[in-house]
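can u pls check wat happens w/ magnesium ion
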Amino acid sequence: MNQTVYADIREMKKYALDNKVPIMQDEGIDYLTTFVVKNQINSVLEIGSAIGYSAIMMALANPNLKVTTIERDRERYLEAVKNIKQFQLEDRITLVFHDALDANIEGMFDMIFIDAAKGQNIKFFEKYENNLKEDGYIITDNMNFHGLVDKLDNEIESKNLRALVRKIRDYRTFLINNQNYQVEFLNIGDGIAVAKREEK
Ligand code: SAH
Ligand code: MG
């Protein structure tokens, strides 16, 4: 990558910080970009594009990679369109402006990356595993949710937050109990779950 690309990445990260857009943490993005290279992931379906940061980083890491990514927030979607253009990745990143809970995505992917509304992970998983290749991976971000997932319920003050944290715990249990996948939980960034589909 040349200096301009690095400067553009820095600018994108600054926009996220200034506008409180929860893009992946450095540790998480390092893991993800290494993962798509190491496992020869050439197609990704991403739920939750925000401003396109993680999609762009994956595409830059692996020149064979194509990403389809879904975002429901208009402002973020438009910012993502702008960023993808800036990196000239329009031919490898397809943005879908839609609520992922009722979008219709065609095609099969090597990997699905879930990084949207944290309370809906089971729904996203069950809907989009239909788009996952037989030996594909489903990766989920924010499994620790800023360390709250491992806290006692009475240590979390807000009721809404408690409910959300319970849903992330339920998702963790759902993954562990899912016989079709082998799952690993990594304490990287904000917590990453890697589920590999295992054909029986
Ligand atoms: N993956 C991005 C960060 C995504 S932040 C990165 O690391 O660069 C989560 C995004 O998911 C938010 O922009 C939010 O608007 C979007 N989102 C949440 N629920 C969604 C849904 N049901 N459908 C589509 N997008 C959703
Ligand atoms: Mg995230």
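The beta strands are 43-47, 66-71, 93-97, 109-114, 132-140, 181-186, 192-197.
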